[in-house]
Write a structure and sequence with these properties.
The complex is a heterodimer of chains A (1004) and B (526). Chain A is mainly beta and 1004 residues long. Among the domains of chain A are: 3-116, Immunoglobulin-like, CATH 2.60.40.1120; 120-244, TonB-dependent receptor, plug domain (Ferric Hydroxamate Uptake Protein, Chain A, domain 1, Beta Complex). Chain A is 6% helix and 48% strand. In chain A, the strands form 11 sheets. Chain A has a 22-stranded antiparallel beta barrel. Chain A has a 5-stranded mixed sheet with strand order 10-15-16-13-14. Chain A has a 4-stranded antiparallel sheet with strand order 3-2-5-6. In chain A, strand 27 (559-572) and strand 28 (576-587) form a beta hairpin. A two-stranded antiparallel sheet of chain B has the order 1-5. In chain B, strands 2-3 form a two-stranded antiparallel ribbon. In chain B, strands 4-10 form a two-stranded antiparallel sheet. The chains are: A mainly beta (1004), B mainly alpha (526). At the A-B interface, strand 24, strand 25, strand 26, strand 27 and strand 31 of A face helix 1, helix 2, helix 4, helix 5 and helix 20 of B.
């Protein structure tokens, strides 16, 4: 039997007892019926777990060298009729060391099986199944609950920040309603599909928003192509597999005893960690600013200490046939900006039941989340930076002070007068069935659905200068919903040929997504009293067709992905491992003739220590993987000519996008070479991965010359461009100290990569406009074919002219200064690379100290070699005698005396290397004796963002991987970010928060 | 039991294998529905005129694109001349130096305004081509669209010189020299005239639009027919039939004058104001409308921020465009156009100048006017520290109270005054006499409406100055200065040059890059 290599989707908490049980049903059912009735004696006995004495059901009991055998029953007992010539019995059970016992004429044999430690620790969930870690030939990182980031974590991805080399997770600033940007090994496409695929309990494409961080048991990250290829199209940006906590069955206990109740709760306080350094009122007046008579610290006025509290209660347990876990989570989160935060309630239930002699296992996962958010207005932070420090908050008559200037609004009025909130609801369920047809052959089916909906509202009263004043009040509502359906089924067969163990998997996948929604904005409200609910009274309705009514609506088609896949795993003597997989996948989104793509993968691994006995290495595994994955754009209809309606004149339908029936899959081919090693009895373990990835045919909207357009549209979606990334990742873990009282475990992650743009729509291009005031048509990022992405590009500041304008450097030394933006790419232009938006390397350093009942976790994180454009400085640092009366000045040690004209140059591009103490936790676990109603009591204190060491003068030195473009004067940012323009720290980026948390974990 | 389950599961595996990948769009149109079911949002209770429901709107609405908005045809046509400027106001309006370059005649193929002009105008060509290829048009409609397309090609030829003449959607054409484009445009219009009606409704091409456009084309023929490097013409050039271009310009102007259909309007508000619909002077307009014809936002482009209060504008203006002092001063004080076309002097919270002064609380301390807004003709400097309040503002297409971003005024593309001035100029050139009686009398008609004194003799200098005064803000100044060979002259903060290649703008770099087969090339010297 090679039952160890059973693969099952949806099995997750692999150390748990439930796993032992689940896999225990691979019994030799057929063989037991084959025994004849001659010269027999009967042997009975009980099989128990050597670690805790609990009875073990479903253990294989076989007469050695024959097919005669049985399995233990639920209470661990067995009864086997054996031939008289039988001399020994073999007891085997997945996850335990197989034991062979001589019969020696006994009729009763009790056995204690030792858990196989290696096995329990080393199984890893991969796509459509789980694998023994040693068999894995690709780059897969597993992070368990113990290693998660702690403190006030509201998004599952933040649990992983800095823990996985190559996985960059950045959430700039402290906005509780924003979700982090996630990049695995840099960008994998310049199109839409830039973030990793999320799979929760086997449901692909699930949303991280619908799983509470408290309910997560472990997260696996499939980093390279050979692992992700089984997910085909959607695996290009990597795959994050989330496994939620499950109930357990503790053998020997009845259902009412076998119940575990836990409570985890914390309160936290978020404070402003860093904010732009601006002139005080006195400095401002000194520098020539108008003294309006008041003294206001605007940044103080719009921020606060955000108090949050979070509670999680779970009940878990089970019987021999059913295990369950139900939990509920309540989050009341308040951000550092006035009126920002959310209230969320989430409930989850995971239930598994076994039937038909334990051959069938059915699992139901249910989760529902409701979040009520108050988004507030991040713009208030920006205006708090630049607002006149001598301006009062209110006029004498009690109205908010306002000045009629460009891009200038009283920040207190913005957050206090206006409303920006919304409710989102998220529900999903999935039902999985796993059936063992024989002990070698199993079938699995999974059906799931996910529903999301939102209803948002914005209200600007008739007195709001920010928005609403000139429209006599403004109300907006928007709503939308999204439905996702998944059906997948696969079958697995295991067998062996001589020294080869073979596992084959084949399956089918069907995914369908649909979304629709609309929004409405209207002005001319007769009263401000009803907020956005007053939209029904809008005077715009009667006027009809006035420009104040803004309506949007969208509805996607049924977006389908259909796939067939297969995989073969070979294991030669537990020393050499080989995987091959193939997925054929089709999408509705692609051109008529190119809907289907083929995604192959190969992997080879070997454990060198099994060939060469070596005292130094306890483990030395070499892995080589190659895989092709795909990527899809987020929107539909890209391969067709799309017509839009224009109200101009009598109205007309115009083509907005030209058809491209040849539109095909984006593809990424990735090769990964990795080494996993263990030294000094595994005190030092680690892995090193090097990879190269080629991304081709990414889908972009390309301008087509008017002279070549058939429909009249001037753009078309095309497969253009190629990216190439080479990278290196190292992770090390060292048990530095261990004795009875004390333990120190430390780990390091290191990652570096370089991405070059091999092919693009233009040989060379400038992107990322700096914006108003005065710096439109000022592009800061250069991309060029054959060169690295992330180049910050501009003139080099040299000195100040007598008129206060900057004098740039004659870079090419030709005696003439050509620094107008129109010449940014000209041969004689004096422009150069001023920095790179992408870090040279990123580091994470974990430390866990245990001393008796105390435990201290300290996690440091850093990124090095990247630069940021400090846009606050680029606009508001030079002391412009005109502008100073419109905007306060930011201060830094990099300012230049006498410079009055704000104009983009090297002066505002800063190195942003940093190291921060990202997360530090001190916890104490109380000793509990048997009489205590609590099984476990732990209290802890945590600080997130404790301190940052950097020379960057802006708010936050974290890299910025994508750019939402400039906004000004009450405008709104772009809907989709530009991933080719990293490195721009925009004025709307949030202040950073430092969060203090006190929490308690109780287990009953 | 066992087998039953096996079969069930296996059939599940095979049976549900859906493979349907058709993309059935719900929220978007993948086919052209043609004309809308319920046309005429532009017709009913609207200050806009009654745009005919003729199924040609897709092409006609493109005359709005880039015509009166920042960053396209209007901007490059105006900022490159001596009648309008965008100064750098400290940290404001530097914008990478692109408008300073435009003012100084450092024309760069990377200027986004040039690319905007190219795209907006070719967009009109493509829509006209699509309708012309539909095969559903009658002879009059076909003729309308050919002239409309010729109008778009005139803009492209006038601005860029060597372009591609595409006449079928999706069928590329070679880039040809300017004289070839000129002749093609003229031939298209002439061929269409027999099929054109004398009226096709508001904002549509009629036979007089064709004649007025021909008059403009022939007047500029000497410029348009000069091959690179555009050295000065020999005068008295003739078309392929041997007809003198200036005589042709006169002949086509005369057809309009003699028709009696058009006249000079009594006042400028009828021609340029927010309610200037179907003025007697309008031959061809871009029918801007705040609801159904977006794309004119002069209020935003030119006014200083606090002027928002004067007209209760829906959104704050940008403090960008102003006119040049010398140009403004070329008007006599008693010339009614000076008041009608500009916003000058101290500003208050009422458009008529009553009420309270409006303030720039962030005024430049060096500004002698202090906080109260005063649009002075004098501008201290182009860059880097242009005063925030300096420069008279562009007010010809005047603003209405509670103006939305999109203005209601129709933008004049061809009007009767131009026809008169075309004939006046062509007569002078044909006879080599700027004081020709016909020239003087036609010009005095135009001046009389402005309340300006009559001329008795004229010079070339006075003629070009008068054209400037009359057609300010109508995107004609660049064409006029080139025709009068004054494009290379020095004016405020712009030095003289004699680079004839600058008579056309460079082909936008984005267009060259987008053309993958290399069939679109840059002009020599750019």
């Amino acid at each position: 039997m090679h039952s160890k290599r059973i693969t099952q989707c949806g099995i997750s908490n692999l150390r748990s007892y439930s796993f032992k049980l689940l896999l225990g049903f691979v019994i030799v059912a057929l063989s037991s019926t084959l025994s004849s009735a001659q010269n027999r004696s009967t042997i009975t006995g009980t099989v128990t777990d050597a670690s805790d004495g609990s009875p073990l059901p479903a253990v294989n009991v076989v007469v050695k060298g024959t097919t005669v055998g049985t399995a233990t029953s639920i209470d661990g007992t067995y009864s086997l009729s054996v031939p008289s010539d039988a001399d020994s019995l073999q007891f085997s059970f997945l996850g335990y060391v197989t034991q062979t016992v001589a019969i020696d004429g006994r009729s009763m044999i009790d056995i204690m099986l030792q858990p196989s430690v290696e096995f329990l620790e080393d199984i890893v969930v991969v796509g459509y199944g789980a694998q023994d870690e040693k068999e894995i030939t690709s780059s897969v990182a597993t992070i368990g609950e113990a290693d998660f980031n702690k403190g006030n974590v509201n998004n599952a991805s933040e649990l992983l920040q800095g823990k996985v080399p190559g996985l960059s997770i950045y959430n700039k600033g402290g906005d509780p309603n924003s979700t982090p940007t996630i990049r695995l090994r840099g960008i994998s496409t310049v199109g839409d599909n830039t973030e990793p695929l999320v799979v929760i309990d086997g449901v692909i494409g699930a949303s991280l928003d619908n799983v509470d961080p408290s309910d997560i048991a472990s997260i696996n990250v499939l980093k390279d192509g050979s692992a992700a290829a089984i997910y085909g199209s959607r695996g290009s940006s990597g795959v994050i597999l989330v496994t939620t906590k499950k109930g357990e069955y503790a053998a020997g206990q009845n259902a009412s005893e076998n119940i575990e109740v836990t409570y985890n709760g914390y309160v936290s306080a978020a404070t402003v960690q860093n904010r732009p350094n601006v002139m005080t009122a006195d400095e401002y007046i000194q520098a020539g600013g108008n003294d309006l008579g008041s003294r206001t610290d605007w940044q103080d006025e719009v921020t606060r200490t955000g108090m949050s509290n979070v509670h999680n209660i779970s009940v878990a347990g089970g019987t021999q046939s059913t295990i369950y876990r139900v939990s509920t989570n309540v989050r009341e989160i308040n951000g550092i900006l006035q009126n920002s935060g959310f209230n969320q309630i989430n409930a989850r239930a995971n239930i598994s039941h076994r039937a038909f002699d334990n051959r069938l296992n059915v699992t139901l996962n249910l989760s529902a989340t409701k979040r009520e958010s108050s988004y507030s207005f991040a713009e208030a932070l920006r205006y708090a930076v630049l607002y006149n420090p001598t301006a009062p908050i209110y006029f004498d008559n009690g109205d908010y002070y306002q000045a009629i200037l460009f891009d200038n609004f009283n920040p207190v009025a913005i957050v206090e007068q206006n409303i920006n909130d919304g409710t989102s609801k998220n529900m999903n369920f999935n039902i999985q069935g796993d059936f063992s047809i024989t002990d070698q052959w199993s079938v699995n089916a999974n059906f799931g659905q996910q529903f999301n909906s939102f209803l948002n509202g914005e209200f600007y009263p008739s007195t709001s200068f920010f928005r609403g004043l000139n429209e006599n009040g403004l109300a907006a509502r928007s709503t939308g919903e999204d439905k996702f359906t998944l059906f997948e089924t696969y079958t697995t067969y295991r067998t062996d040929f001589g020294d080869f163990d073979i596992t084959g998997t084949a399956g089918y996948s069907f995914q369908e997504e649909e979304n629709e929604g609309f929004n409405l904005t209207m002005g001319n409200l007769p009263t401000d009293l009803l907020g956005y609910h007053g939209i029904r009274n809008s005077g715009d309705i009667n006027v009809g067709g006035t420009a104040n009514v803004r309506v949007g609506s969208y509805a996607s088609p049924q977006e389908r992905i259909i796939a067939y896949f297969g995989r073969v795993n070979l294991n030669w003597k537990d020393a050499v491992f080989f995987n091959a997989s193939l997925r054929q996948e089709g999408s509705t989104k692609l051109g008529e003739d190119n809907k289907w793509g083929l995604f192959p993968a190969l992997g080879l691994g070997t454990d060198v220590t099994s060939f060469i006995g070596n005292d130094l290495f306890t483990q030395l595994k070499v892995r080589l993987g190659y895989g092709v994955t795909g990527a899809l754009p987020s929107s539909s209809g890209l391969s067709k000519t799309i017509y839009g309606y224009s109200f101009s004149g009598t109205g007309s339908f115009d083509a907005v996008s030209e058809a491209n029936p040849d539109l095909k899959w984006e593809e990424k081919a990735e090769t990964n070479l990795g080494i996993d090693f263990g030294l000094m009895d595994d005190k030092l373990t680690g892995s090193v991965d090097v990879y190269t990835r080629n991304i081709t045919d990414f889908i972009l909207s390309v301008a087509i010359p008017a002279t070549e357009s058939v429909s009249g549209a001037t753009s078309q979606y095309q497969n253009v461009g190629e990216l190439k990334t080479n990278g290196l990742e190292i992770s090390l873990n060292y048990l530095a100290l261990q004795n009875e009282d004390m333990q120190w475990n430390t780990g390091l992650t290191f990652s570096t990569y370089k991405t070059t743009l091999e092919k693009f729509i233009a040989a060379e291009q400038m992107r990322a406009n700096l914006g108003s005031p005065g710096q439109n048509s000022t592009s800061m990022i250069r991309v060029a074919e054959g060169e690295e992405i992330g180049q910050i590009w501009g003139p080099v500041f040299e000195s100040v002219d007598t008129d206060g304008s900057p004098i740039m450097k004659d870079i090419n030394g030709d005696g003439q200064l050509i620094v107008g933006q129109g010449d940014a790419l000209a041969d004689d232009g004096d422009f150069t690379q001023l920095g790179n938006g992408i870090p040279d390397f990123e580091l994470g350093w974990t430390n866990t100290f245990n001393y008796q009942n105390w435990s201290l976790d300290a996690f440091f994180r850093g990124a090095f070699g990247h630069s940021l454009v400090n846009t606050f400085r680029a606009f508001y640092e030079p002391i412009d005698p005109g502008a100073i009366n419109s905007y306060n000045r930011v201060k830094s040690d990099k300012s230049v005396d006498g410079l009055t004209v704000a104009q983009f140059s090297s002066l505002y591009v800063e190195k942003a290397d940093f190291v921060k103490l990202d997360n530090v936790t001190l916890s104490y676990t109380f000793d509990v004796n048997e009489n205590n109603p609590f099984k476990n009591i732990r209290v802890y204190g945590n600080i997130q963002n404790a301190f940052t060491l950097t020379n960057y003068s802006g708010i936050d030195p974290e890299p910025v991987f994508q750019d939402y473009g400039p906004i000004d004067n009450g405008g709104r940012p772009a809907a989709t970010p530009d991933v080719l323009s990293p490195g721009i720290d925009r004025r709307y980026n949030y202040f950073t928060a430092r969060t203090f948390t006190f929490g308690i974990n109780l287990e009953f | 039991m066992k087998y039953l389950l096996r079969i069930t599961l296996l059939s599940l595996l095979v049976g549900v294998s859906c493979t349907d990948l058709d993309e059935n769009l719900r929220g978007d149109l993948a086919e052209d529905p043609g004309a809308p079911n319920n046309p005429g949002f532009g017709i009913s209770e609207n200050v806009n005129g009654s745009i005919p429901n003729d199924g040609l709107n897709a092409a006609y609405s493109r005359v709005l694109s880039g015509t009166a908005w920042h960053g396209s045809y209007f901007s490059v046509s105006e900022i490159s001349t001596d009648e309008a400027v965008i100064t750098q106001k400290g940290g404001d309006w530097f914008d990478g130096g692109i408008w300073l370059n435009m003012h100084r005649h450092d024309f760069l193929p990377t200027n986004p305004g040039l690319n905007g002009a190219w795209n907006d105008t070719y967009g009109g060509v493509t829509e006209a081509n699509t309708l012309l290829a539909s095969g559903t048009l009658d002879a009059n409609q076909t003729a309308q669209l050919r002239v409309l397309r010729a109008f778009f090609y005139w803009k492209l030829m006038d601005l860029f010189g060597r372009i591609k003449i595409v006449t079928t959607p999706g069928v590329d054409a070679p880039q040809v020299d300017r004289p070839v484009v000129f002749q093609w445009i003229v031939d298209e219009i002439n061929a269409s005239i027999p099929d054109l009606a004398t009226s096709n409704g508001y904002s549509r091409v009629n036979v007089y639009v064709a004649h007025a456009l021909l008059s403009r084309l022939y007047l500029n023929a000497e410029v348009y027919t000069r091959p690179y490097p555009y050295v000065a013409g020999t005068g008295n050039a003739t078309d392929p039939n041997g007809d003198n271009y200036y005589q042709l310009a006169i002949d086509h102007a005369d057809i309009i004058i003699n028709s009696g259909v058009y006249d000079l309007a009594d006042n400028f508000d009828d021609v340029f104001g927010p309610k200037n619909v179907e003025s007697i002077e309008h031959i061809f307009v871009a029918p801007f409308d705040e609801k159904t014809g977006g794309g004119m936002n002069f209020a935003q482009m030119t006014l200083h921020y606090p002027s928002q209060l004067t007209w209760d504008l829906a959104e704050q203006p940008w403090n960008g465009y102003s006119s040049l002092e010398e140009f403004y001063n070329s008007y006599d004080d008693n010339d009614l156009r000076k008041e009608a076309f500009f916003i000058a002097g101290p500003q208050t919270d009422q458009p008529d100048g009553s009420g309270n002064p409006i303030l720039d609380v962030a005024f430049d301390k060096a500004d002698p006017d202090g906080a109260p807004i005063n649009y002075t003709p004098e501008i201290n400097e182009l860059a880097p520290n242009g005063s925030r309040q300096a420069g008279v503002r562009l007010g010809k297409f005047s603003f209405k109270l509670r103006q939305q971003n999109d203005m209601d005024n129709d933008y004049t593309l061809l009007r009767y005054a131009e026809v008169l001035m075309n004939k006046a100029e062509a007569t002078a050139r044909l006879n080599d006499n700027w004081s020709h009686p016909t020239t003087i009398s036609l010009m005095n008609m135009v001046r009389a409406r402005a309340g300006a004194s009559a001329y008795t003799t004229l010079t070339e200098d006075e003629f070009i100055a008068e054209r400037g005064r009359e057609f300010f803000q109508e995107s004609l100044r660049r064409t006029d200065l080139i025709r009068f060979d004054r494009w290379g002259d020095a004016w405020w903060e712009k030095s003289a040059h004699n680079n004839a290649y600058k008579n056309v703008m460079p082909i936008p770099l984005d267009q060259i890059n987008a053309t993958t087969d290399g069939s679109l090339t840059q002009h020599t010297d750019y």
